[in-house]
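Example S7 (structure tokens).
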């Protein structure tokens, strides 16, 4: 029999908001596992002791957490969802008859708190992962990804055009009337069509001119152009993607199965990855309180400067070298030459010695060259040096560090760690973009993008910590929480104790 449901609104309802939220809902599990009172000490310095009571800062951070957990990229739409979603209302402790805060309180809080508070929220998510047993010593996986900026390529203008106008408003209006003499009425029909509302060639760079200037020279986009919408975003061109404005997110992933994001740094899209390795590892040690013994990264980080930095820090590098072994155009590269450490010479494919002839301190390289005239009659000349000149090859001062890293990468452990990096580092970026709204920036400016990156990483850590805590007994959770509180207290008060000790040393 076909049934039909007739809805008749009631004047009064006997229900409880708590009873309408499922027991296995993610927000209910988060509320039972996390005490958000840690927000109050962080936010208290940013409020006055007088005036009207503000919106509870815990409510603000819970609302932001909802948005990043469920990928709601608009704060206006987030508060609209809170208005109608019973689970969201319950999580924020707002009953059915209470008014939801306006979306503007979130942007005001972001401007008021600054970076320190949001970084503290991210660090607390790392501590929650430690309490859940997810954080432990092991390899650290470092990687980066591009995040498309909330700005169009059509917003690009010549750098300085929108910053320093050539005329004041009064002078501009005067020159406008002087240079544009009104035409007779009978010639009105011959007027050219009005310019496009999107701006002319002075304010908009057409796509065909973004790489080449009108004079035919190649344009350096980031040094000559700037976005009017987001001046800190940079132009990025990658193979397989169109040119776009972007930022870059650098992350360190560690812990069991690489589930914990321990560092997150936002930079402009043009910043090279290899220059951020030391900073990312420094944030990893500072926020997670874990030593760093092994670092796993891709070829972008395989520079001599990084190998030397990791060696001096006592860290093993599982990073493939980015230095090309094969030469251009089919010319033999370094893989055809062998180096003798005892004699400090290279042996070419013909068995002839190449001795040191220069030493460049600026690039930290040593140059080796074959004897004069040795390459003209060589049978391998076409493959080795088609020009007929003496073949040269260079070697870094500490090139043995590169050789050690390559041997480490070629080992069974190295191959396994590099395979895990694809799953853990790139998997974290994939989840952040697909489920948590990190495919595109929500705000403009590197400072706000950094806040977005921290909140995205915190939401991912909290979700994993809550799911892992369900598998632990209550005693283990309490013990881990006590250890985490001790470590947090030590890291909070250790700088103060060190400062007092230094002052007492100078007292008579």
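Recovered sequence:
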């Amino acid at each position: 029999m076909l049934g039909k449901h007739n809805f008749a609104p009631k004047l009064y309802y006997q229900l409880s908001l708590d009873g309408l939220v499922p027991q296995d809902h993610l927000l209910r599990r988060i509320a039972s596992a996390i005490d958000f009172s840690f927000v109050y000490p962080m936010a208290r310095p940013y409020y006055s002791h007088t005036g009207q009571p503000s919106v509870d800062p815990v409510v603000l951070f819970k609302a932001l957490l909802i948005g990043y957990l469920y990928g709601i990229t608009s704060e206006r739409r987030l508060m609209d969802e809170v208005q109608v979603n019973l689970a969201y209302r319950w999580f924020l402790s707002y009953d059915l008859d209470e008014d939801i805060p306006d979306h503007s309180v979130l942007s005001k809080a972001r401007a008021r708190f600054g970076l320190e508070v949001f970084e503290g929220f991210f660090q607390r998510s790392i501590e929650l992962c430690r309490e859940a047993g997810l954080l432990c010593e092991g390899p650290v996986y470092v990687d980066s990804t591009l995040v498309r900026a909330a700005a169009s390529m059509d917003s690009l203008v010549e750098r300085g055009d929108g910053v320093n106008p050539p005329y004041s408003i009064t002078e501009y209006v005067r020159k406008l009337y002087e240079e544009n003499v009104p035409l007779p009425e009978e010639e009105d029909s011959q007027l050219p069509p009005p310019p496009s509302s999107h701006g002319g060639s002075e304010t908009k760079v057409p796509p065909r001119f973004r790489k080449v200037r009108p004079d035919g020279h190649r344009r350096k986009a980031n040094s000559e152009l700037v976005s009017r919408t987001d001046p800190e975003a940079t132009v990025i061109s990658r193979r397989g993607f169109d040119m776009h404005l972007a930022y870059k997110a650098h992350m360190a992933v560690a812990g069991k199965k690489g589930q914990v994001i321990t560092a997150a740094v936002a930079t402009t899209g043009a910043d090279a990855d290899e220059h951020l390795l030391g900073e990312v590892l420094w944030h990893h040690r500072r926020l997670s309180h874990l030593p760093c013994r092994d670092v796993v990264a891709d070829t972008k980080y395989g520079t001599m400067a990084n190998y030397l930095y990791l060696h001096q820090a006592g860290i093993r590098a599982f990073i493939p070298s980015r230095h090309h072994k094969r030469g251009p155009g089919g010319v033999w590269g370094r893989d055809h030459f062998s180096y003798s450490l005892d004699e400090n010479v290279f042996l070419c494919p013909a068995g002839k010695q190449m001795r040191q002839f220069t030493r460049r301190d600026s690039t930290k390289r040593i140059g080796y060259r074959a004897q004069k005239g040795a390459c003209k009659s060589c049978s391998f000349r076409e493959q080795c040096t088609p020009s007929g000149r003496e073949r040269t090859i260079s070697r870094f001062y500490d090139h043995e560090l590169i050789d050690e890293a390559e041997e480490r990468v070629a080992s069974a452990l190295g191959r396994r760690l590099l395979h895990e990096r694809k799953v853990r580092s790139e998997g974290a970026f994939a989840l952040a973009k697909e489920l948590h709204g990190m495919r595109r920036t929500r705000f403009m400016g590197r400072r706000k993008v950094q806040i977005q990156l921290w909140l995205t990483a915190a939401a991912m850590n909290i979700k994993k910590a809550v799911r892992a805590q369900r598998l632990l007994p209550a005693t283990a959770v309490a013990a881990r929480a006590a250890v985490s509180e001790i470590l947090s207290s030590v890291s909070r008060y250790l700088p103060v104790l060190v400062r007092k000790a230094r002052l007492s040393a100078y007292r008579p």
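Notes on this example. DSSP finds 17 helices and 13 strands in the chain.
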